[in-house]
Design brief:
It contains 13 helices and ten strands. The chain is of the alpha/beta class. Helix 3 links the parallel strand 1 and strand 2.
Length: 403
């Protein structure tokens, strides 16, 4: 079933949905679906969940929580976490085009540059989610910066040092759980010095850290390895945290052809000039023993990783169109599907900006799978007060209800 979107509704109704879904410890989607189903079946429009009567008992597999979405991009982390009961109370993203997409999708404009936001002004929350900038640590990003004589990693003041702004937010707000995402190369960048700094910084903040490189190819037809970092506040969860990353989905893996449109506009077919250039470029590097070149995708397999540079020539994910016709690139909608974004989400920016946004995004189904494991751990370790808030210790080691 396509994702049900909670948007374009009066503020009073949205506030009611927020309040009721949170009180029933379920997601907004589950709450609205239950209301609609009950109304369709002739009921009074009140939500009835398995094992729930009169809103007194929570669904067996749900535990709603609040989250903040930092370095939000177009909201891939938020989408994944909302599917397992998350309710976003704050978002931050500096890029104006990503802000435009985020506002169209979620009905709110994210705050801007995190360096200009006081941590104290961020609402209290249960989960801090952040896909902090990856270019300073990615293989392609490091190579480009070196070729231009620029600094990379933490020495990249504009982007790399943003992790320390993030760490400051974590230190001041003390969220029970943190969920971070970055490129696979984060672990090995600068002879593992970058990774050591990140782990030691989070450990010094008293968080127990779990990390795993996950390939999204089991959820979407794209080879996309990213590191996911999950942290639990040791003061809340203790030293023995029962958390495990998700197992791979059961059943056959998705196929690339499943995300393709039946018919594609001619403008996405490569011109003779561009196609000849890509072939010559690939042949040149093959002769030099390099692996650079275009990627012709197996329709029954998975594609290469979609990157933010896809708008330039589409070379990493090309689609064969049969003998005698040049290959084509993905349309923006196909790129969205390749990343796991549902068709119900409108594309409100230019093709160029859409390719950049999807190439930089997080795969929501992977976040959902990780988020489900986080919810299980929270449910096992935390309790709630009568008002529904998570039991949370403040930075002063006092017991306090969350917001």
């Amino acid at each position: 079933m396509p994702q049900l979107l909670i948007r374009d509704i009066p503020p009073q109704l949205k506030a009611w949905i927020d309040e009721k879904s949170y009180g029933l410890r379920t997601s907004q989607k589950e709450f609205v679906l239950s209301v609609l189903t009950n109304a369709w079946e002739g009921g009074e429009g009140l939500p009835l969940f398995d094992g729930v009567q009169n809103g007194t008992t929570a669904p067996m597999d749900g535990m709603p929580f609040t989250l903040v979405d930092l370095f939000a991009g177009i909201g891939g982390m938020r989408l994944g976490l909302e599917r397992v009961g998350g309710r976003c109370t704050f978002s931050s993203e500096w890029d104006k085009y990503s802000q435009k997409t985020y506002q169209a999708w979620f009905g709110e404009l994210p705050e801007g540059d995190i360096r200009e936001i006081r941590p104290e002004d961020i609402p209290d929350h249960d989960v801090l989610a952040a896909g902090f900038p990856c270019q300073p640590f990615s293989i392609a990003g490091v190579s480009k910066k070196k070729s231009l004589g620029m600094q990379h990693g933490f020495k990249d003041v504009k982007q790399g040092a943003l992790f320390f702004h993030l760490a400051k937010v974590i230190e001041i707000k003390r969220p029970p759980v943190i969920l971070l995402e970055n490129v696979k190369n984060l672990r090995t960048h600068d002879k593992r010095k970058t990774w050591d700094v990140i782990r030691k910084s989070l450990d010094a903040l008293d968080y127990i850290i779990f990390d795993r490189i996950i390939d999204a190819a089991s959820w979407v037809p794209q080879h996309r390895e990213r590191i996911f970092i999950v942290g639990f506040d040791r003061n809340l969860f203790g030293s023995n945290v029962a958390f495990e990353f998700p197992e791979l989905p059961v059943g056959p893996p998705p196929k690339f052809r499943d995300i393709l449109d039946r018919k594609s506009p001619e403008k996405y077919t490569l011109t003779d000039h561009l196609w000849n250039y890509l072939q010559k470029y690939a042949a040149k590097h093959k002769a030099l023993g390099n692996g650079f070149g275009f990627g012709m995708t197996d329709l029954d397999g998975v594609s290469r990783t979609l990157s933010a540079r896809y708008y330039k020539d589409g070379s990493e994910v090309l689609i064969p169109q049969g003998k005698g016709k040049n290959p084509r690139r993905l349309s923006p909608r196909e790129a969205a599907r390749l990343m796991g974004f549902p068709d119900e989400l409108p594309i409100v920016v230019s093709d160029t900006q859409a390719y950049k946004q999807f190439g930089n995004a997080v795969v929501p189904p992977v976040v959902e799978a990780v988020g489900r494991q986080i919810v299980q751990t929270m449910a096992a370790h935390l309790t709630r007060r009568p008002n529904g808030c998570l039991l949370k210790k403040s930075s002063r080691r006092q017991v306090a209800g969350r917001h």
